Amino acid sequence: MSNNFYRAFEDKHRGSVADIRQRLTLYLPLIQKLNSFYPDANVIDIGCGRGEWLKLLHDNNIHAVGVDLDEGMLAEALKDGLTVELDDCINFLKKQESDSAIAITGFHIVEHLPFEIVHSLVLEALRVLKAGGLLILETPNPENISVGSCSFYMDPTHQNPLPPELLKFLPDYYGFERTRIVRLQESDRIKDHSSELTLSEVLKGVSPDYSTVSQKSGSQKLYTEFNEFFVKKIGVTLDELADRYDMGLGGKLDVIIQELTNKVENVRAEIKEINDYNKELENRLFAVYSSNSWRMTAPLRRVIDLGKRTDVARKKGLKYLAKALVRKIFQRLVRVLGKYPRARSNILVLMRKIGIYSLLRKIYLKSVSGENNQYSYNNFFPTSHIDKLTNRAKEIYEDLHKDEIKNNKGD
């Protein structure tokens, strides 16, 4: 890989010098506190690259030295007059005196190293740091699903993602007094706990970077200076975002359920109102039928009804009147027999045995022919639609039509 390739890659994909410098200001107060205890000691920045962090320290009057293996990256730092060396980070640390540095920082360097080298880095850092000094290691956060599954592998020099708890375990294991995980660079919407998250934000919104900040044992006074930093909450985890998303869905579901419940209650209220109204009508009707005036006017109603029938008979003839009378008798018989299915079956069997079933059926059909138009399949299925049927459907239609014609003839 050429010296200029990685520099061009960093310029395009990691961010501008100004952006990186702004992100690193988070750590500046920590270094300033240490510098107040050890004003003449250095900060060592391994994998210093273009020197954004070194320039920030230099501008705040803090002594710092950087080390990197990429000449193209170091060329940019040298232009700014920064102190840098071309060397392997482990070799460089081994050349440093014990208890000589106030802080050792490595921003996006450990993911480039084999894990056994990260072991050596942590162990050497513990030796080189002054009492109470800090080891800061920042790296991409694989808790962010988009980072862990995709963007991490954009850099061809990356080895493997390092889960936060794994990287935290190393300094704890080798004897640092305390270590905390700092999750970084999440969006403003993620930081705003009142915002409603989308599923995409759950998958991509977890802090895309994190760092482990480890402190070597030291004086109680110096140790106390950093207590607040080691206990305050910084960043968000995947579990926290998932819980917020679930709560948002739960809230939406509660609203939907409440709306549906209100609609159901409204429908029930309307049904009750209709039932109450119907009951009121039934009560009124019952009151009318039970009233003395209804009973007293019964003869009058019969006379009026008889007058109407007489008028109809006069207009349509006695034949129509006879048919109406027969029809009424048959309808009464059908209703009565409908209440007793077994008796109806026995009567039908008896009528067929004595041979009067067909006769009575003809009389009934003739009695209703004047009142209702006899229906046939042509009445509800226009012949113009027959051509659209399949061949089998046409055969069924013709069979049904023939049977209907026979039935109408009394056969």
Report what the structure shows.
The structure is a single chain. It contains 21 helices and seven strands. It has 411 residues and is of the alpha/beta class. Strand 2 (64-68), helix 5 and strand 3 (84-86) form a beta-alpha-beta unit. The protein starts with a helix and ends with a helix. Residues 373-381 have low confidence and may be disordered.
User: Portion of residues in helices?
Assistant: 55-70%
Described by the principal axes of the CA atoms, the overall outline is rod-shaped
Structural class: alpha/beta
Could you tell me the mean pLDDT? 83
The biggest beta sheet reads:
7 strands, mixed
Number of helices: 21
Kindly summarize this structure in a few lines.
Helix 2 packs across helix 4, helix 16 packs across helix 17 and helix 17 crosses helix 19. About 2% of the residues have low confidence. 61% of the residues lie in helices and 11% in strands.
